[in-house]
Protein backbone atom coordinates (compact mmCIF):
# COMPACT_ATOMS: atom_id res chain seq x y z
CA UNK A 1 0.00 0.00 0.00
CA UNK A 2 1.33 3.46 -0.93
CA UNK A 3 2.27 5.76 1.94
CA UNK A 4 0.12 8.81 2.52
CA UNK A 5 1.53 11.77 4.48
CA UNK A 6 -0.41 14.56 6.19
CA UNK A 7 0.87 18.08 6.80
CA UNK A 8 -0.42 21.63 7.26
CA UNK A 9 -0.08 24.68 5.06
CA UNK A 10 1.08 27.98 6.53
CA UNK A 11 -2.61 28.97 6.72
CA UNK A 12 -3.31 25.95 8.88
CA UNK A 13 -5.12 23.84 6.27
CA UNK A 14 -4.55 20.11 6.12
CA UNK A 15 -2.87 18.62 3.07
CA UNK A 16 -1.94 15.10 2.06
CA UNK A 17 0.67 13.81 -0.36
CA UNK A 18 0.02 10.59 -2.26
CA UNK A 19 1.77 9.09 -5.29
CA UNK A 20 3.53 12.31 -6.19
CA UNK A 21 0.46 14.57 -5.92
CA UNK A 22 -0.47 17.05 -3.19
CA UNK A 23 -4.08 17.53 -2.13
CA UNK A 24 -5.94 19.95 0.14
CA UNK A 25 -9.11 19.04 2.02
CA UNK A 26 -12.23 20.09 0.11
CA UNK A 27 -15.18 18.53 1.95
CA UNK A 28 -16.43 15.61 4.04
CA UNK A 29 -19.46 13.43 3.77
CA UNK A 30 -20.69 9.87 4.27
CA UNK A 31 -17.60 9.05 6.30
CA UNK A 32 -15.35 10.16 3.42
CA UNK A 33 -12.84 12.97 3.12
CA UNK A 34 -12.60 14.50 -0.34
CA UNK A 35 -9.25 15.99 -1.31
CA UNK A 36 -8.67 18.31 -4.28
CA UNK A 37 -5.39 18.62 -6.18
CA UNK A 38 -3.51 21.72 -5.01
CA UNK A 39 -3.01 22.67 -8.64
CA UNK A 40 -6.72 23.43 -8.77
CA UNK A 41 -6.47 26.08 -11.48
CA UNK A 42 -5.59 23.54 -14.14
CA UNK A 43 -6.43 20.18 -12.55
CA UNK A 44 -9.62 18.64 -11.15
CA UNK A 45 -7.91 15.59 -9.68
CA UNK A 46 -9.74 14.36 -6.59
CA UNK A 47 -8.76 11.81 -3.94
CA UNK A 48 -11.23 10.09 -1.61
CA UNK A 49 -10.23 8.54 1.73
CA UNK A 50 -12.19 6.68 4.35
CA UNK A 51 -11.44 8.23 7.74
CA UNK A 52 -13.15 10.02 10.56
CA UNK A 53 -10.32 12.45 11.29
CA UNK A 54 -7.41 13.92 9.49
CA UNK A 55 -4.98 12.63 12.08
CA UNK A 56 -6.08 9.02 11.60
CA UNK A 57 -5.03 6.40 9.07
CA UNK A 58 -6.27 6.33 5.49
CA UNK A 59 -7.26 2.85 4.34
CA UNK A 60 -8.11 2.23 0.74
CA UNK A 61 -7.52 5.71 -0.72
CA UNK A 62 -8.72 6.06 -4.28
CA UNK A 63 -8.83 8.64 -7.05
CA UNK A 64 -12.33 9.76 -7.97
CA UNK A 65 -11.27 12.13 -10.74
CA UNK A 66 -7.91 11.57 -12.47
CA UNK A 67 -5.29 14.30 -12.75
CA UNK A 68 -4.66 16.28 -15.92
CA UNK A 69 -0.90 16.47 -15.25
CA UNK A 70 1.86 14.03 -14.24
CA UNK A 71 2.88 13.64 -10.58
CA UNK A 72 5.42 16.09 -9.21
CA UNK A 73 7.52 14.49 -6.48
CA UNK A 74 9.62 17.64 -6.09
CA UNK A 75 6.56 19.76 -5.41
CA UNK A 76 5.37 17.29 -2.79
CA UNK A 77 8.79 17.38 -1.11
CA UNK A 78 8.82 21.20 -1.13
CA UNK A 79 5.32 21.36 0.33
CA UNK A 80 6.34 18.99 3.08
CA UNK A 81 9.41 21.11 3.92
CA UNK A 82 7.29 24.27 4.02
CA UNK A 83 4.98 22.54 6.47
CA UNK A 84 7.90 21.37 8.64
CA UNK A 85 9.37 24.90 8.73
CA UNK A 86 6.08 26.36 9.93
CA UNK A 87 5.57 23.62 12.49
CA UNK A 88 9.11 24.03 13.86
CA UNK A 89 8.60 27.81 14.04
CA UNK A 90 5.51 27.16 16.17
CA UNK A 91 7.14 24.66 18.51
CA UNK A 92 10.88 25.49 18.75
CA UNK A 93 13.00 28.36 20.02
CA UNK A 94 15.48 28.00 17.16
CA UNK A 95 15.57 31.11 15.00
CA UNK A 96 13.38 30.99 11.91
CA UNK A 97 16.29 31.62 9.51
CA UNK A 98 18.17 28.77 11.16
CA UNK A 99 15.18 26.48 10.75
CA UNK A 100 14.95 27.40 7.08
CA UNK A 101 18.65 26.75 6.48
CA UNK A 102 18.55 23.44 8.32
CA UNK A 103 15.54 22.18 6.41
CA UNK A 104 16.96 23.50 3.15
CA UNK A 105 20.16 21.53 3.76
CA UNK A 106 18.22 18.42 4.75
CA UNK A 107 16.18 18.66 1.55
CA UNK A 108 19.36 19.15 -0.47
CA UNK A 109 20.78 15.94 0.94
CA UNK A 110 17.57 14.02 0.20
CA UNK A 111 16.42 15.54 -3.08
CA UNK A 112 18.64 18.05 -4.92
CA UNK A 113 16.08 18.80 -7.63
CA UNK A 114 13.44 19.64 -5.01
CA UNK A 115 15.89 21.85 -3.14
CA UNK A 116 16.45 23.81 -6.34
CA UNK A 117 12.77 24.86 -6.44
CA UNK A 118 12.35 25.53 -2.71
CA UNK A 119 11.03 29.09 -2.28
CA UNK A 120 13.46 31.64 -0.85
CA UNK A 121 13.50 32.49 2.81
CA UNK A 122 12.04 35.93 2.13
CA UNK A 123 8.99 34.45 0.44
CA UNK A 124 8.38 32.02 3.31
CA UNK A 125 9.45 34.15 6.28
CA UNK A 126 6.16 35.95 6.94
CA UNK A 127 4.16 32.72 7.26
CA UNK A 128 6.75 31.18 9.57
CA UNK A 129 6.85 34.27 11.80
CA UNK A 130 3.03 34.33 11.96
CA UNK A 131 3.15 30.72 13.13
CA UNK A 132 5.64 31.67 15.79
CA UNK A 133 3.65 34.65 17.08
CA UNK A 134 0.55 32.50 17.52
CA UNK A 135 2.31 29.90 19.65
CA UNK A 136 5.16 31.50 21.65
CA UNK A 137 4.56 33.10 25.07
CA UNK A 138 5.05 36.84 25.48
CA UNK A 139 8.44 36.55 27.22
CA UNK A 140 9.87 34.91 24.12
CA UNK A 141 8.71 37.56 21.66
CA UNK A 142 12.33 38.61 21.19
CA UNK A 143 12.63 35.55 18.97
CA UNK A 144 10.02 37.06 16.69
CA UNK A 145 12.28 39.99 15.88
CA UNK A 146 13.45 39.35 12.33
CA UNK A 147 16.20 41.94 12.59
CA UNK A 148 17.62 40.26 15.70
CA UNK A 149 17.48 36.90 13.98
CA UNK A 150 19.36 38.26 11.01
CA UNK A 151 22.06 39.88 13.16
CA UNK A 152 23.49 36.64 14.49
CA UNK A 153 21.44 33.81 13.07
CA UNK A 154 20.47 34.76 9.52
CA UNK A 155 23.00 32.34 8.11
CA UNK A 156 23.52 30.25 11.24
CA UNK A 157 27.21 31.09 10.93
CA UNK A 158 29.68 32.34 13.50
CA UNK A 159 30.80 34.76 10.80
CA UNK A 160 27.36 35.68 9.43
CA UNK A 161 27.20 39.35 10.46
CA UNK A 162 29.18 40.59 7.45
CA UNK A 163 26.96 38.85 4.90
CA UNK A 164 23.52 39.69 3.57
CA UNK A 165 23.24 36.96 0.94
CA UNK A 166 22.81 33.25 1.60
CA UNK A 167 25.52 30.68 0.99
CA UNK A 168 24.88 28.42 -1.96
CA UNK A 169 23.78 24.99 -0.64
CA UNK A 170 26.46 23.30 -2.73
CA UNK A 171 29.05 25.57 -1.11
CA UNK A 172 27.57 24.68 2.29
CA UNK A 173 28.42 21.02 1.71
CA UNK A 174 31.78 21.84 0.16
CA UNK A 175 32.79 24.10 3.05
CA UNK A 176 31.59 21.94 5.94
CA UNK A 177 34.00 19.81 7.95
CA UNK A 178 31.64 18.61 10.68
CA UNK A 179 31.48 15.04 9.40
CA UNK A 180 35.15 14.45 10.18
CA UNK A 181 36.09 17.06 12.79
CA UNK A 182 33.18 16.06 15.06
CA UNK A 183 35.51 13.51 16.64
CA UNK A 184 37.26 16.48 18.31
CA UNK A 185 34.09 17.31 20.26
CA UNK A 186 35.69 16.57 23.63
CA UNK A 187 38.81 18.63 22.93
CA UNK A 188 36.63 21.51 21.71
CA UNK A 189 34.50 21.50 24.86
CA UNK A 190 37.45 21.12 27.23
CA UNK A 191 39.20 24.01 25.48
CA UNK A 192 36.08 26.18 25.77
CA UNK A 193 35.65 25.39 29.46
CA UNK A 194 39.22 26.47 30.11
CA UNK A 195 38.79 29.60 28.00
CA UNK A 196 35.65 30.78 29.79
CA UNK A 197 37.58 30.59 33.07
CA UNK A 198 40.34 32.70 31.55
CA UNK A 199 38.00 35.41 30.27
CA UNK A 200 36.23 35.43 33.63
CA UNK A 201 39.56 36.20 35.32
CA UNK A 202 39.84 39.40 33.26
CA UNK A 203 36.19 40.41 33.79
CA UNK A 204 34.82 39.65 30.33
CA UNK A 205 32.15 37.42 31.86
CA UNK A 206 30.79 37.35 35.41
CA UNK A 207 31.25 34.34 37.64
CA UNK A 208 27.56 33.53 37.20
CA UNK A 209 27.94 33.65 33.42
CA UNK A 210 31.09 31.54 33.63
CA UNK A 211 29.26 28.88 35.61
CA UNK A 212 26.29 29.01 33.26
CA UNK A 213 28.53 28.52 30.23
CA UNK A 214 30.52 25.77 31.93
CA UNK A 215 27.36 23.89 32.93
CA UNK A 216 25.95 24.28 29.44
CA UNK A 217 29.13 22.90 27.90
CA UNK A 218 28.96 19.96 30.30
CA UNK A 219 25.44 19.20 29.07
CA UNK A 220 26.62 19.37 25.47
CA UNK A 221 29.46 16.97 26.34
CA UNK A 222 26.99 14.57 27.93
CA UNK A 223 24.97 14.52 24.72
CA UNK A 224 28.10 13.57 22.75
CA UNK A 225 29.04 10.89 25.29
CA UNK A 226 25.57 9.31 25.12
CA UNK A 227 25.41 9.55 21.33
CA UNK A 228 22.44 11.92 21.59
CA UNK A 229 23.96 15.02 19.99
CA UNK A 230 22.12 15.87 16.78
CA UNK A 231 24.16 17.57 14.08
CA UNK A 232 22.07 20.16 12.26
CA UNK A 233 22.54 20.97 8.57
CA UNK A 234 23.80 24.44 9.48
CA UNK A 235 26.57 23.06 11.73
CA UNK A 236 29.58 23.96 9.63
CA UNK A 237 32.16 22.41 11.96
CA UNK A 238 32.50 21.08 15.49
CA UNK A 239 33.05 24.60 16.88
CA UNK A 240 29.83 25.90 15.30
CA UNK A 241 27.89 22.82 16.38
CA UNK A 242 28.93 23.02 20.01
CA UNK A 243 28.31 26.77 20.25
CA UNK A 244 24.94 26.43 18.56
CA UNK A 245 23.87 23.76 21.02
CA UNK A 246 25.24 25.75 23.95
CA UNK A 247 23.12 28.72 22.87
CA UNK A 248 20.06 26.50 22.75
CA UNK A 249 20.73 25.53 26.37
CA UNK A 250 21.65 28.89 27.93
CA UNK A 251 20.58 31.59 25.48
CA UNK A 252 22.46 34.68 24.35
CA UNK A 253 25.13 34.54 27.05
CA UNK A 254 26.70 31.75 24.94
CA UNK A 255 27.79 34.50 22.56
CA UNK A 256 30.29 35.75 25.14
CA UNK A 257 32.32 32.55 25.09
CA UNK A 258 34.10 33.41 21.86
CA UNK A 259 35.27 36.84 23.05
CA UNK A 260 38.85 37.37 21.85
CA UNK A 261 39.01 33.86 20.42
CA UNK A 262 39.13 32.86 16.76
CA UNK A 263 38.42 29.51 15.22
CA UNK A 264 42.05 29.73 14.09
CA UNK A 265 43.49 29.34 17.59
CA UNK A 266 40.51 27.26 18.72
CA UNK A 267 40.92 24.69 15.95
CA UNK A 268 44.69 24.46 16.30
CA UNK A 269 44.25 23.92 20.03
CA UNK A 270 41.59 21.25 19.52
CA UNK A 271 43.83 19.40 17.10
CA UNK A 272 46.80 19.46 19.44
CA UNK A 273 44.65 18.31 22.35
CA UNK A 274 43.18 15.48 20.30
CA UNK A 275 46.51 14.36 18.88
CA UNK A 276 48.31 14.60 22.21
CA UNK A 277 45.73 12.46 23.98
CA UNK A 278 45.54 10.01 21.06
CA UNK A 279 49.31 9.55 20.96
CA UNK A 280 49.26 8.85 24.69
CA UNK A 281 47.00 5.91 23.83
CA UNK A 282 49.16 4.79 20.93
CA UNK A 283 52.47 4.75 22.81
CA UNK A 284 51.61 1.71 24.99
CA UNK A 285 50.33 -0.09 21.91
CA UNK A 286 53.72 0.30 20.23
CA UNK A 287 55.46 -0.87 23.42
CA UNK A 288 53.19 -3.90 23.61
CA UNK A 289 54.09 -4.88 20.05
CA UNK A 290 57.80 -4.51 20.86
CA UNK A 291 57.30 -6.68 23.92
CA UNK A 292 55.73 -9.45 21.82
CA UNK A 293 58.87 -9.53 19.65
CA UNK A 294 61.08 -9.57 22.76
CA UNK A 295 59.26 -12.44 24.45
CA UNK A 296 59.36 -14.60 21.34
CA UNK A 297 63.06 -13.86 20.93
CA UNK A 298 63.78 -15.09 24.47
CA UNK A 299 61.66 -18.21 24.11
CA UNK A 300 62.95 -19.21 20.65
CA UNK A 301 66.60 -18.21 21.01
CA UNK A 302 67.98 -21.59 19.89
CA UNK A 303 66.27 -21.63 16.48
CA UNK A 304 68.60 -21.06 13.52
CA UNK A 305 67.58 -19.84 10.08
CA UNK A 306 69.14 -18.38 6.92
CA UNK A 307 69.79 -14.68 6.89
CA UNK A 308 69.23 -12.98 3.53
CA UNK A 309 70.71 -10.09 1.58
CA UNK A 310 69.38 -9.18 -1.88
CA UNK A 311 66.84 -11.95 -1.21
CA UNK A 312 69.71 -14.47 -1.49
CA UNK A 313 70.77 -16.76 1.32
CA UNK A 314 73.70 -15.05 3.01
CA UNK A 315 74.72 -16.25 6.50
CA UNK A 316 73.21 -18.33 9.29
CA UNK A 317 71.49 -16.28 12.01
CA UNK A 318 69.21 -16.91 14.94
CA UNK A 319 65.46 -16.52 14.42
CA UNK A 320 65.57 -14.39 17.57
CA UNK A 321 68.05 -12.10 15.88
CA UNK A 322 65.50 -11.47 13.12
CA UNK A 323 62.79 -10.80 15.71
CA UNK A 324 64.97 -8.34 17.62
CA UNK A 325 65.92 -6.47 14.46
CA UNK A 326 62.28 -5.41 14.15
CA UNK A 327 61.88 -4.81 17.88
CA UNK A 328 64.85 -2.43 17.73
CA UNK A 329 63.40 -0.50 14.77
CA UNK A 330 60.08 -0.17 16.59
CA UNK A 331 61.94 0.99 19.71
CA UNK A 332 63.27 3.93 17.69
CA UNK A 333 59.72 4.60 16.51
CA UNK A 334 58.57 4.69 20.13
CA UNK A 335 61.38 7.07 21.03
CA UNK A 336 60.50 9.35 18.11
CA UNK A 337 56.88 9.23 19.25
CA UNK A 338 57.87 10.58 22.65
CA UNK A 339 59.81 13.39 20.99
CA UNK A 340 56.81 14.15 18.78
CA UNK A 341 54.49 14.28 21.78
CA UNK A 342 56.64 17.01 23.32
CA UNK A 343 56.34 19.18 20.20
CA UNK A 344 52.60 18.56 19.93
CA UNK A 345 52.08 19.66 23.54
CA UNK A 346 52.31 23.41 22.84
CA UNK A 347 49.19 25.59 23.17
CA UNK A 348 47.99 27.98 20.41
CA UNK A 349 44.93 29.17 22.40
CA UNK A 350 45.01 32.89 23.07
CA UNK A 351 46.61 33.64 19.72
CA UNK A 352 43.33 34.84 18.18
CA UNK A 353 43.08 34.88 14.43
CA UNK A 354 46.73 35.82 14.07
CA UNK A 355 47.65 38.92 16.10
CA UNK A 356 47.06 37.67 19.65
CA UNK A 357 44.50 38.35 22.38
CA UNK A 358 43.61 42.00 23.16
CA UNK A 359 42.04 41.32 26.59
CA UNK A 360 45.15 40.29 28.52
CA UNK A 361 43.98 36.70 28.83
CA UNK A 362 46.39 34.67 30.98
CA UNK A 363 47.80 32.13 28.54
CA UNK A 364 49.99 30.50 31.19
CA UNK A 365 46.82 29.81 33.14
CA UNK A 366 45.20 28.35 30.02
CA UNK A 367 48.21 26.13 29.35
CA UNK A 368 48.09 24.79 32.90
CA UNK A 369 44.33 24.15 32.71
CA UNK A 370 44.75 22.17 29.48
CA UNK A 371 47.96 20.35 30.54
CA UNK A 372 50.07 21.98 27.83
CA UNK A 373 53.77 22.37 28.50
CA UNK A 374 53.69 26.00 27.39
CA UNK A 375 51.81 28.52 25.23
CA UNK A 376 52.95 28.91 21.63
CA UNK A 377 55.54 31.72 21.70
CA UNK A 378 54.27 33.43 18.53
CA UNK A 379 50.59 33.90 17.71
CA UNK A 380 51.10 33.87 13.92
CA UNK A 381 52.95 30.58 14.03
CA UNK A 382 50.76 29.09 16.75
CA UNK A 383 47.45 29.55 14.95
CA UNK A 384 48.59 28.51 11.49
CA UNK A 385 51.47 26.11 12.11
CA UNK A 386 50.71 22.52 11.16
CA UNK A 387 54.18 21.05 11.27
CA UNK A 388 53.01 18.95 14.23
CA UNK A 389 50.52 17.27 11.87
CA UNK A 390 53.18 16.82 9.19
CA UNK A 391 55.59 15.39 11.75
CA UNK A 392 52.95 12.96 12.98
CA UNK A 393 52.22 11.88 9.39
CA UNK A 394 55.93 11.33 8.77
CA UNK A 395 56.28 9.40 12.02
CA UNK A 396 53.28 7.27 11.05
CA UNK A 397 54.80 6.70 7.60
CA UNK A 398 58.16 5.63 9.00
CA UNK A 399 56.52 3.31 11.52
CA UNK A 400 54.49 1.81 8.68
CA UNK A 401 57.72 1.24 6.72
CA UNK A 402 59.01 -0.92 9.56
CA UNK A 403 55.74 -2.83 9.88
CA UNK A 404 55.58 -3.30 6.12
CA UNK A 405 59.07 -4.81 6.20
CA UNK A 406 57.98 -7.28 8.88
CA UNK A 407 54.95 -8.13 6.76
CA UNK A 408 56.94 -8.63 3.57
CA UNK A 409 59.35 -11.00 5.32
CA UNK A 410 56.55 -13.03 6.88
CA UNK A 411 54.57 -13.17 3.63
CA UNK A 412 57.59 -14.89 2.10
CA UNK A 413 58.35 -17.03 5.16
CA UNK A 414 54.81 -18.44 5.32
CA UNK A 415 54.73 -19.37 1.63
CA UNK A 416 55.13 -23.00 0.57
CA UNK A 417 58.47 -22.09 -1.00
CA UNK A 418 59.86 -21.13 2.42
CA UNK A 419 57.59 -22.76 4.98
CA UNK A 420 59.39 -21.11 7.91
CA UNK A 421 56.25 -19.92 9.70
CA UNK A 422 52.54 -20.59 9.75
CA UNK A 423 49.98 -17.85 10.36
CA UNK A 424 47.12 -18.45 12.76
CA UNK A 425 43.69 -18.90 11.19
CA UNK A 426 42.60 -15.76 13.06
CA UNK A 427 44.84 -13.67 10.80
CA UNK A 428 44.42 -15.53 7.52
CA UNK A 429 41.73 -15.83 4.87
CA UNK A 430 40.98 -18.28 2.07
CA UNK A 431 40.07 -18.27 -1.58
CA UNK A 432 36.52 -18.26 -2.94
CA UNK A 433 37.68 -20.60 -5.70
CA UNK A 434 40.70 -22.58 -4.49
CA UNK A 435 39.95 -24.51 -1.27
CA UNK A 436 43.60 -25.25 -0.50
CA UNK A 437 44.58 -21.58 -0.18
CA UNK A 438 45.46 -19.92 3.12
CA UNK A 439 46.25 -16.31 2.36
CA UNK A 440 48.27 -13.96 4.55
CA UNK A 441 45.76 -11.15 4.04
CA UNK A 442 46.52 -9.55 7.40
CA UNK A 443 50.13 -9.01 6.34
CA UNK A 444 49.25 -8.00 2.80
CA UNK A 445 46.83 -5.38 4.12
CA UNK A 446 49.50 -3.98 6.42
CA UNK A 447 51.82 -3.74 3.43
CA UNK A 448 49.09 -2.14 1.32
CA UNK A 449 47.97 0.36 3.95
CA UNK A 450 51.54 1.61 4.19
CA UNK A 451 51.02 3.28 0.81
CA UNK A 452 47.81 4.82 2.11
CA UNK A 453 49.64 6.52 4.99
CA UNK A 454 52.42 7.63 2.63
CA UNK A 455 49.77 9.26 0.46
CA UNK A 456 48.30 11.22 3.36
CA UNK A 457 51.75 12.43 4.35
CA UNK A 458 52.92 13.49 0.90
CA UNK A 459 49.51 14.98 0.08
CA UNK A 460 49.46 17.18 3.15
CA UNK A 461 53.04 18.31 2.59
CA UNK A 462 51.98 19.39 -0.90
CA UNK A 463 49.06 21.31 0.63
CA UNK A 464 51.36 23.19 3.00
CA UNK A 465 54.02 23.81 0.39
CA UNK A 466 52.00 26.43 -1.48
CA UNK A 467 50.59 28.41 1.45
CA UNK A 468 51.50 31.94 2.53
CA UNK A 469 51.85 32.82 6.20
CA UNK A 470 48.94 32.58 8.67
CA UNK A 471 45.79 30.52 8.40
CA UNK A 472 44.30 29.57 5.04
CA UNK A 473 41.29 27.33 4.44
CA UNK A 474 43.54 24.83 2.68
CA UNK A 475 44.51 23.70 6.18
CA UNK A 476 41.08 22.14 6.61
CA UNK A 477 42.68 19.20 4.80
CA UNK A 478 44.87 18.55 7.84
CA UNK A 479 42.22 16.76 9.87
CA UNK A 480 41.26 14.00 7.47
CA UNK A 481 44.93 13.18 6.92
CA UNK A 482 45.59 13.13 10.65
CA UNK A 483 42.50 11.12 11.59
CA UNK A 484 42.83 8.60 8.78
CA UNK A 485 46.53 7.96 9.40
CA UNK A 486 45.94 7.56 13.12
CA UNK A 487 43.08 5.12 12.56
CA UNK A 488 45.05 3.18 9.96
CA UNK A 489 48.15 2.88 12.13
CA UNK A 490 46.12 1.93 15.21
CA UNK A 491 44.52 -0.93 13.32
CA UNK A 492 47.83 -2.03 11.81
CA UNK A 493 49.59 -2.15 15.19
CA UNK A 494 46.78 -4.21 16.69
CA UNK A 495 46.79 -6.68 13.81
CA UNK A 496 50.59 -6.91 13.75
CA UNK A 497 50.60 -7.64 17.48
CA UNK A 498 48.10 -10.43 16.94
CA UNK A 499 50.03 -11.89 14.01
CA UNK A 500 53.41 -11.98 15.78
CA UNK A 501 51.99 -13.35 19.03
CA UNK A 502 50.09 -16.22 17.38
CA UNK A 503 52.23 -17.37 14.44
CA UNK A 504 53.83 -20.82 14.59
CA UNK A 505 57.43 -21.38 13.53
CA UNK A 506 58.86 -24.48 11.82
CA UNK A 507 62.40 -24.80 13.26
CA UNK A 508 63.24 -27.91 11.25
CA UNK A 509 62.32 -26.22 7.97
CA UNK A 510 64.37 -23.17 8.89
CA UNK A 511 67.42 -25.28 9.70
CA UNK A 512 67.00 -27.38 6.57
CA UNK A 513 67.19 -24.17 4.53
CA UNK A 514 70.75 -23.60 5.75
CA UNK A 515 73.28 -24.63 3.10
CA UNK A 516 77.08 -25.13 3.15
CA UNK A 517 77.72 -22.29 0.70
CA UNK A 518 76.45 -19.92 3.41
CA UNK A 519 79.62 -20.84 5.34
CA UNK A 520 82.02 -19.57 2.68
CA UNK A 521 82.49 -16.35 4.66
CA UNK A 522 83.34 -18.47 7.71
CA UNK A 523 85.97 -20.22 5.56
CA UNK A 524 87.53 -16.84 4.84
CA UNK A 525 87.43 -16.00 8.56
CA UNK A 526 89.24 -19.31 9.24
CA UNK A 527 92.12 -18.20 7.05
CA UNK A 528 92.13 -14.73 8.62
CA UNK A 529 92.60 -16.37 12.01
CA UNK A 530 95.60 -18.16 10.47
CA UNK A 531 97.14 -14.81 9.55
CA UNK A 532 95.94 -14.40 5.96
CA UNK A 533 94.84 -10.83 5.05
CA UNK A 534 91.07 -10.68 4.62
CA UNK A 535 91.08 -9.64 0.95
CA UNK A 536 93.33 -12.58 0.13
CA UNK A 537 91.27 -14.90 2.35
CA UNK A 538 88.08 -13.74 0.62
CA UNK A 539 89.56 -14.65 -2.75
CA UNK A 540 90.79 -18.04 -1.52
CA UNK A 541 87.35 -18.84 -0.13
CA UNK A 542 85.87 -17.96 -3.50
CA UNK A 543 88.30 -20.41 -5.15
CA UNK A 544 87.04 -23.11 -2.77
CA UNK A 545 83.44 -22.37 -3.85
CA UNK A 546 84.50 -22.55 -7.50
CA UNK A 547 86.28 -25.87 -6.92
CA UNK A 548 83.17 -27.33 -5.30
CA UNK A 549 81.07 -26.22 -8.25
CA UNK A 550 83.65 -27.73 -10.64
CA UNK A 551 83.49 -31.04 -8.79
CA UNK A 552 79.65 -30.76 -8.53
CA UNK A 553 79.73 -31.22 -4.79
CA UNK A 554 78.94 -29.08 -1.79
CA UNK A 555 81.57 -26.99 -0.04
CA UNK A 556 81.57 -29.36 2.93
CA UNK A 557 82.35 -32.32 0.66
CA UNK A 558 85.74 -30.92 -0.32
CA UNK A 559 88.53 -32.97 1.24
CA UNK A 560 91.39 -31.51 3.23
CA UNK A 561 93.64 -32.35 0.27
CA UNK A 562 91.31 -30.37 -2.04
CA UNK A 563 91.45 -27.37 0.28
CA UNK A 564 95.23 -27.56 0.65
CA UNK A 565 95.61 -27.33 -3.14
CA UNK A 566 94.19 -23.82 -2.72
CA UNK A 567 96.17 -22.84 0.40
CA UNK A 568 98.46 -24.86 2.71
CA UNK A 569 97.13 -23.24 5.91
CA UNK A 570 93.98 -25.36 5.71
CA UNK A 571 94.35 -28.01 8.44
CA UNK A 572 92.26 -30.70 10.15
CA UNK A 573 90.49 -28.14 12.34
CA UNK A 574 88.80 -26.70 9.24
CA UNK A 575 86.03 -29.20 9.89
CA UNK A 576 84.76 -26.88 12.66
CA UNK A 577 83.83 -24.32 9.99
CA UNK A 578 81.08 -26.61 8.72
CA UNK A 579 79.04 -26.36 11.93
CA UNK A 580 76.14 -23.87 11.81
CA UNK A 581 76.10 -23.47 15.59
CA UNK A 582 79.79 -22.55 15.51
CA UNK A 583 79.02 -20.10 12.72
CA UNK A 584 76.45 -18.06 14.67
CA UNK A 585 78.39 -18.32 17.94
CA UNK A 586 81.45 -16.56 16.48
CA UNK A 587 79.55 -13.25 16.31
CA UNK A 588 80.23 -12.26 19.92
CA UNK A 589 80.55 -8.50 19.50
CA UNK A 590 77.59 -6.56 20.93
CA UNK A 591 74.56 -6.65 18.66
CA UNK A 592 75.64 -9.93 17.05
CA UNK A 593 73.71 -13.15 16.51
CA UNK A 594 75.53 -15.33 19.07
CA UNK A 595 73.28 -16.64 21.83
CA UNK A 596 74.78 -14.46 24.52
CA UNK A 597 74.57 -11.34 22.34
CA UNK A 598 70.95 -12.05 21.52
CA UNK A 599 70.06 -12.57 25.18
CA UNK A 600 71.87 -9.34 26.05
CA UNK A 601 69.75 -7.51 23.47
CA UNK A 602 66.64 -9.08 24.98
CA UNK A 603 67.62 -7.88 28.46
CA UNK A 604 68.40 -4.38 27.23
CA UNK A 605 65.02 -4.11 25.49
CA UNK A 606 63.23 -5.53 28.53
CA UNK A 607 64.91 -2.90 30.72
CA UNK A 608 63.83 -0.19 28.28
CA UNK A 609 60.25 -1.48 28.32
CA UNK A 610 60.22 -1.37 32.12
CA UNK A 611 61.74 2.12 32.38
CA UNK A 612 59.64 3.73 29.65
UniProtKB/TrEMBL annotation:
GO terms for biological process: L-arginine biosynthetic process via ornithine. Keywords: Amino-acid biosynthesis, Lyase, Metal-binding, Zinc, Zinc-finger. The keyword NAD does not apply. It comes from Strongylocentrotus purpuratus. Residues 161-455 form the Fumarate lyase N-terminal domain. Residues 8-52 form the FLYWCH-type domain. This is Argininosuccinate lyase. Pfam families: ASL_C2, FLYWCH, Lyase_1. Belongs to the lyase 1 family. Argininosuccinate lyase subfamily. One of its GO terms (molecular function) is argininosuccinate lyase activity. Residues 518-585 form the Argininosuccinate lyase C-terminal domain. GO terms for cellular component: cytosol. InterPro entries: Arg_succ_lyase_C (IPR029419), Argininosuccinate_lyase (IPR009049), Fumarase/histidase_N (IPR024083), Fumarate_lyase_CS (IPR020557), Fumarate_lyase_fam (IPR000362), Fumarate_lyase_N (IPR022761), L-Aspartase-like (IPR008948), Znf_FLYWCH (IPR007588). Residues 52-71 are annotated as: Disordered. NCBIfam families: argH.
